What we know:
about 350 residues, single chain, ten-stranded antiparallel beta barrel, 3 helices
Amino acid sequence: MAEQDRAPEKKKYPARKYGKPKKIDPILGPLKLLPGVWKSEGRGWNMIALPFSTAPSPLDYRLLLNQYNEQLEFRLVDNNVPNRGVDKDRTPTAETDQFIVTLDYQQTIQQVAAADSPNSGLAGPAGLPIHHEPGLWLHMKDEITDGLDIARLATIPHGDSVLALGQSSEHAGASCIPHINSLPEGVSQDKERDKDGKIVLDKNGKDILTNRYLSPYQQFHANPFKGTVTAPGFPGFDPTATHVLLELANQGVNVVKTTVLSVDSTIPTGGISNIPFVVRKANAAFMKSIFWIQELAEKDKYGDPKLRLQYLQLVMLDFFPRRDGLPPGCCPGLIRWPHVSINTLDKDVEESKSCYE
């Protein structure tokens, strides 16, 4: 019998599973450590530029910094969500189904302290709920394209919906935290220099931005925001060095293994959709985030490795015309304002019990 005349084998679909996974379920792939409740008190830091009338000053924006508490909860939705497909180029036509691990997540954030420049009187008090985000994490178990095996879907009450795609990886030890440029794009970021070309430092030993339009950034660069932290030597949150507090949180911590989840909404088929007002006034253009899930040498009360979660998230907001003198059409016509959030969370083993079998 010719190969093309043989009856195709009936494909066996894996059983779909709803409910709770095992405590650490390998079938969840790179998401296996996430189910449960993660908490952080006072270790979250956020920076965002917001349109704000400062007349007669020409700024028309304020730079807001927050210190925050966070709870992040993950629960299994299904470990085999089926996406149906066929390969029409084969004879006979063959099924090419994809199966996806899906976790639901809920992120809630409360403000501990805040400061802005110029001072608007709108920064808000301690205990203010400042963010709520429901969403999904996906692990594509098969039919993977371009190595993209994970995705994050998020919805934000401001009127934004996000799809970001990316890759997972594992390595021994802790990760190197990237140093991102968190100054706005589309304005001069030059540093003040003396007649010999050396960078001029202020009385605190910090370099000085020459662009007066960035004076709020210079203010918090020269005097980093410390929120409620009074510990000697605490460097505070510097908007030009947002990686520092993540590195500080890793000092003295013995990280045995790290799972990395890195996603980016600019990858083709990803993106952000916003309501009309957001698009007109401060459009959320793209989002990139990295999660580092750390397995520590230190054990919890049940003898299992303690787990920590660190993240660095960057959202670019577009508003106000560029000020760097570039001709129209050379680059995007609006200033891009980095919205940066970082945190270090610990897994709460007691509260996480409700998320397992």
